[in-house]
What we know:
heterodimer, A: four-stranded antiparallel β-sheet, elongated, B: alpha/beta, 33% helix
Amino acid sequence: MIDPDRPIRSDAEAERVAVRPMVLRTFAAILRDTWREFLDAKVLYLLLLAIALLFGAALTGRIEPQPGGRQYLDIAARALAADLDGIDIATQSMGDVAGRLNGSVYAISAAEPLEADLPEGHWKATLKRTFIPLVGAPETGEEITARFGRIADGQLWTITEIRETGPEWTRKIGSQTWEMTVAPGRDLRLLWPHRFTLFGDSVELAGTKGAPLGLEVLILQKLLATGLGGTILLLVSVAVTAAFVPNMVRKGTLELLLVRPIPRWQLLVFKYVGALLLVAGLLGILVLAVWLITGILADVWSPGVLLALPSLLVFFALLLAVSVLTGVITRSVISAMLVTVAYWAILFIAGQMNNVAVESRIREANVGKMRPTSIAETIRGRQPRREEGLKPGRRPFYQTTIGRMTEGVYAVLPHTEDLDNLVDRQLMRDFAVAGPFRALMESASFSWEKGLGLTLLHTVAYLAIACAIFSRRDP
Amino acid sequence: MVVSVNHLEKQYGPNRALGGVSLDVEPATLFGLLGQNGAGKTTLIKILLGLVAPTAGEAALLGQPVGTFSARREVGYLPEDHRLPEYHTSTSLLDLYGALQGIPRRQRRRRAAELLDLLGLAGREKLRIRGYSKGMKQRLGLAQALLHSPRVLFLDEPTDGVDPVGRKEIRDLLLEERRRGVTVFINSHLLGEVEQLCDRVAILRKGKLMVTGTVADLTRQKASWLVAFDRGMPASFRFPGATVEPVEGGSRLRVSLAPADGPPPLPQAEANEAIDYFLAAASAAGLRVRHLERERATLEDLYLAIASGGGTP
């Protein structure tokens, strides 16, 4: 039974219903205000123009596979000798390999493509194995199939057909021969050398020999998204948004806002969120455009580059909080801009120095082991080296006073450099890029949880301080 | 009482902006707040708006403590040297302030259009405030103060930078608001305008309330007249109890019916009677009156007297 005299809502409920749309209305109004102020900055159009030109230039690019590719079969063959649980054996010298696996040496003695389209087509190849009888046992085609083409950088080739051809007696003197048909592996295209030209053929970006496709795409994505493109966009965003709070707290403007029946912190926080949403939109456009353009150019659609969006956005959230705090304290656009850029510079330097410290730890742990080299280096014939220890009496960087200070300071700073490294790591994984830089990026000390957590913690702290000052100060 | 202020004090560091001000203002009053720069007018208003917390004392607006949200919904404010965000147009700015004031969208649009029309800003909706003249900014500032139909208005120099026709329009607007029951506080240095417009005034000096009263009381008639005769007054003419001095280069005479340093001015009726006797005596001496005007104490006289350090004159 419903009592007809019972009021529909209690006063407290009515109050809540009345207040909720008020907050939304306030938020929507400040969002529109921020949007207007943002668009008012003409520099934004220049930025969009600059990005459009950058992308226009990128779209004139052509990426084409280089002919050849026998060397990739050689690498695949050498990889057979790999201790597959070990490190990058594909980069080790013949001597190293022979010593480590049954005294065997594998070599491709003949190879030709069956179809014209490189590098996707099938190849016919002859594999020769030479081993020392009694030390090494004969191998079956299945064993070869299981291991062929797998290298640290990725999967180069897979065997689709294999037939042992040599006469039976040659086994006894330590020689085996297989005729085989190989299909491109998952990563062959990424590792295959491609030419990269801009503006027709007028600018050659990867040299005449070309570079692995994955590496080219990675560099392009990094340059346009987290590198140059992202940096320009963030700089312009910092410049535009640095004016927001000083303009708002200006004498004669502030009073017109403070007399409204809303809490003061909402003015600041909603303005902050509004600016953040707008920059998130710009970053979203940038990152999505980078992904699309590299996809169209190279037909490589790995989504790793999309991780640049949270990484850049969280970084900007931090910078914006610094800018808001400075703006509240100094009420000056120039100060807000300079302090924010200086803060950025400090984070950058601390991050780079911390990378050096992390690298010195990795290097020390790997002394005596083979240095990881990339397939690109292998193709160029660079000899793999062992990681050398430091000269006697010299300490690794992380044990020096500056190194200790670096790690100490970095521990409490927002880990934005980690976020950048994590994006790089994902790109390297996506594009089968190996080498010392990859080894640094794979360091366990970088994690999304720590990177995001510390950065957001700083962001919230700066905002809270700004709100506290703003709420207490007499206009 | 619309405004009730009790022993209000405000200290900015070592500076005392307000030193114990008490004031009561009734509804539907046009209240003029006068005083030199730094006298504490703006501080008083900011306390009433809840923008600044008082160091001591109490202030209430419409029966509630100042600064509460429900008090702020009833208050419109035009600050001195206001700077409206230049990237807005008139409509987008009023829309922003209306939303922050809690007015639903359809309502605030209608009200904004109405006010822009009323203040002569209609037809300029597309223009950014950056391109506004000072007078236009002033009108828009007034529009935002009136947007939510507040019951109390605090206006700092409301006609600043506005042309004479515009001033008249604004004065009419404020009179209309008062007729609707709105209480209007006006901070102004244009004493003539305040005298013309306001019902009551208060004069502040160095954070203290020096004078408060109705304009009629403060600008009461003096016991002196300005007289012009058709010809010069013969040197022999004498009238006991009156001091006669030429003013305005001799074209008029000031006739004071009490000595400047003597007893207080004569009561109204006696003063009127005295001038009759004076004129009769002049007429008897062959002089004919061309002009006669009773002198009043202007707000300016009072203001200058207080500003120069005196008390109530």
